[in-house]
Design goal:
4 helices, mainly alpha, 106 residues, elongated
């Protein structure tokens, strides 16, 4: 059986950043909300929480510093994903209201 290490978990973060750069900078796609964004936000939050708990369990204070940095990064990513969700939801509701108002009555 394979035992996961902290290194395995940490490797996801640079990969996620590289994929975002490739998609939005190199390919120049317009940012748009999609549910898959939560799959990128979730690991950031879990990494932050796990690092903080590991620092408490082991007494390695430098790990607490890492989690204190990443908590802002994770919250920022969560806020961006949530705002995208809220804007997308508002647009869907607005379109449905418009379509109902313009439908001919039979």
């Amino acid at each position: 059986e394979r035992v996961e290490t902290v290194y395995d978990d940490v490797c996801w973060i640079p990969l996620l950043v590289a994929l975002m750069i490739w998609r939005y900078v190199i390919r120049k796609e317009m940012p748009a909300y999609e549910p898959a964004l939560w799959g990128m936000v979730f690991p950031l939050g879990m990494y932050t929480t796990a690092t903080f708990q590991l620092s408490r369990a082991t007494g390695f204070d430098f790990l607490a510093g890492i989690s204190e940095f990443f908590v802002f990064f994770a919250l920022g990513a969560w806020a961006v994903a949530f705002m995208g969700f809220a804007i997308n939801l508002w647009r869907c509701i607005s379109v449905q209201r418009y379509e109902k108002a313009t439908l001919p009555a039979f």
